[in-house]
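Subgroup meeting minutes
Present: P.N., E.W., G.H.
Scribe: E.W.

1. P.N. recapped why we're keeping a running log of single-chain structure predictions: easier to compare across weeks, and new members can see raw inputs and outputs side by side.
2. G.H. added today's entry (126 aa).
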Amino acid sequence: MTNFVVKTLANAAALAVAIWLLAGITLDDQSPLGRRALTLILVALVFGLVNIVVKPIVKLLSLPLFVVTLGLFTLVVNALMLLLTSWLAEQLDLSFHVDGFWTAVLGGLIISVVSWAVNLALPDKS
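Output recorded in log:
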């Protein structure tokens, strides 16, 4: 349970950095700070679920592309997972939006790097 909470907070921190760095990834700025924090945590939960459920299936189905591109196709898969999270957030009435594919590619790259750094810094308790 602690590991799940730590990973969700790491995803929330990574999403916050991507929102801060990229104009194309937005969280509703007009709501109060507490509401934005709750929205960010809910989006991090959605993002985590997408990465747990959908990402392995997409990776398996696109395995030849991973081999041909020497792993660079990971950037495309991460972008697609971020776009799917944006769509699901819209369906759940969460104020998170990613503008387009290239913004999602950059956002996926930022989120991957920040998540890796945060998970490296935090203890890994199962």
